[in-house]
Amino acid sequence: EDQVTQSPEALRLQEGESSSLNCSYTVSGLRGLFWYRQDPGKGPEFLFTLYSAGEEKEKERLKATLTKKESFLHITAPKPEDSATYLCAVQASTQGGSEKLVFGKGTKLTVNP
Amino acid sequence: NAGVTQTPKFQVLKTGQSMTLQCAQDMNHEYMSWYRQDPGMGLRLIHYSVGAGITDQGEVPNGYNVSRSTTEDFPLRLLSAAPSQTSVYFCASSYSRVGSPLHFGNGTRLTVT
Predict the structure, then answer these.
(1) Given CA atoms A25, A30, A35, A38 in this order, what sign does their dihedral have?
(2) Are A42 and B90 within 8 A, CB to CB?
(3) Residue A39 and residue A109: Cα distance in Å, rounded?
(4) Do the Cβ atoms of B43 and A44 come within 8 Å?
């Protein structure tokens, strides 16, 4: 069964304290891995797409990396406005030849000033 | 551009009532989808559409109907509301079903009593 596991479930950081969020997956036929940010009461907002192992993407204080089994979202010198829930989603081919997108449960990040 | 617009933002129904959640996008995306988000679970796909006149079931379709008469609109109908359908519903669209990031609306919070 295709699975996407995000860890930790929740993370508290002090402003400026860098850390990483993890998204591990067990799927065959990876077609893409997506990172989203979700603020309370809002829909998820797209951050990055990664397609193959070794790929990296950066945006401001965020950097996403991908291996064959997991992805990391590195947050460098976070600010309080980075507080949100970060979602990972993996798109994979199924045995029947169709595509499936599986979301993780998310990591709730809180950055204290 | 408004992106993906969902109405209403909040709704309370009694068991057995029916209603339609509206979704419209102005990005000319062919792919549209409906998800539900429940505490402690990842986003789950209810129904999706790859173009006007074409719809298909997702992971949790029971109790919901959809139609796609135009590229822009993709309403979700609850036929006979049940307390198990209490959730936050998100509509999302993308350029294509595979490999393209989803653009989400801000959700409809539905409570069924």
Answers:
(1) negative
(2) no
(3) 10
(4) yes
pLDDT > 90 in chain B, percent: 92
Paired tokens of B69 = 């008469």
CA distance to A88, B57, B61, B72, per residue, from B64 (Å): 26, 10, 6, 20
How close is the nearest chain A Cα to the Cα of B106, in Å?
4
Nearby residues of B90 by Cβ (< 8 Å), 6 or more positions away: A43, A44, B6, B34, B35, B36, B37, B43, B104, B105, B107
pLDDT above 90: residue B86:
yes
Of B40, B98, B105, the CB nearest to A43: B105
B112 pLDDT tier (thresholds 50, 70, 90): very high
Pairing of strands A10-14, A107-112: parallel
Q: In this predicted structure, what is the pLDDT of residue B5? A: 97
A41: closest chain B residue by CA = B106
Partner residue opposite B90 with nearest CB, options A43, A101, A106: A43
Residues in A lying within 8 Å of B, measured between beta carbons: 4, 31-32, 34, 36, 41-46, 49, 51, 87, 89, 91, 99, 101-106
User: Between chains, do A49 and B101 touch, taking CB under 8 Å as contact?
Assistant: yes
